[in-house]
Amino acid sequence: MLRSFFIYLSKAAWAQNLITNWSFAWRTASRFIAGTKLSEAIQVVKDLNAKGINATLDHLGEHTNTPEEAQQATDDIFATLDALGADATVRGNVSIKLTQIGLGLDENLCAENLERILARAKQNNTFVRVDIEDTPYTDKTINLYYLMHEKGYTNVGMAVQSYLYRAEADTRRLTQDKTTIRLVKGAYKEPPEKAFPRKADVDANYDLLTKILIDASLTFQTTLSSDGRIPPIPAIASHDEKRIEFARQYAEKVGLPKNGLEFQMLYGIRRDLQEKLVKEGYPVRVYVPFGTHWYPYFMRRLAERPANIWFFISNFFKG
Q: What percent of the chain has pLDDT over 90?
């Protein structure tokens, strides 16, 4: 019930106008968002690197409404890539959403912007993760990934959501082409004909997809690059200790080296678990979002975990 409500709020313009004007809202959101400026986010990445943690930077934004907005979003991504290119010691890459660069407006426009982004990433010796969004965009996103693959871009990966019925077929297809995949549970509101309604089924599917990804990494012998920028095939993106333990045990069982997978978590969530995995020798990458368009991302974080909601409410009463 609460999850559906916060997902609704993430898309409601009236709620965005109201909540973003509450000073306590940013105070709460700043736990999960690494500032509004690129320089602030780069410093956060450096601080994470000092703890042995890699990062992926996301300049927040989605669903641009005009070609000009899509171009501005593309330029913002260029700036992030250039910042990484300017300092080779920063162990990070970039994550993007395709609706941010025009997918909801014109697929050809989006394809042009995506190719320019991948070319800029290649120039700056880094990698781009294409986030997966809600199901109206799933096929379009995968099709654009393959279009870039056919053009020779190998510095790009995908994401898969385990709550979708189609996730297994998508994962098997993508791993055949050595696609690096961020495996998430899914943070959008989807109808029961497209997504598992029960958490137990989502978790079971997550573990199945984890096995597929680990098997693919073993087959293709993919490992984390020495500079921390290019990930192996499996990116197990979860704060659920049971899912993480399943991945660890299965990887050990089949003999996958620790750098043949990475665990990914969100900035500001389960820092204790991030550092624990690093101490045990596993690559960990933290998703570092930043920028002024933080509202939809923040609402989805509240939707995911009840503890985040209580954190939000406690700040409300602090004024």
A: 77
